Give the backbone structure.
Amino acid sequence: MKRQIPLLAAAALLSAAPAIAADAPTDPQIAHIAYTAGAIDIDAAKQALSKTHDKAVHDFAAQMVRDHEAVNAKALALVKKLHVTPQDNPTSQNLTKGAKAERAKLAKLSGAAFDREYVANEVAYHKTVNGALESTLIPSAKNGELKSLLETGLTLFREHQAHAEQVAKELK
């Protein structure tokens, strides 16, 4: 059961990868995927903030809210500037579906069990999203400003992954 939770979010994005590979996503689809991934992490972090009593987990979750809200605000400003409407797509839908199931599973946990599973999921989620950014989303982006925002986000999200991995080690 322990490994099933973190793998759910990863499986959601990976299950959409063949569709992405077959047809490279458009900039409006990329914008939607990136924004959705950030919104999912914000929701997960808010759930953690409401449930955790561990300072390291609380601080990590607070950072996730702060950083992902800032990146999503930049993304919204960019699509407004470019007059682009983000386009819903199967990848965004799979991410949302997986995240909903993940939040429901985490809602049943408390204390140290919640903390360990939340952080393990954050490690897996960031690893998967970072991989998608590197292999598909950034290379597929046509607009230079969108590509630059995704690259900046990837740098930050790699730091998130490393931070989550450190917190996970401390919780064991």
Q: What stands out?
A: Residues 1-21 have pLDDT under 50 and may be disordered.
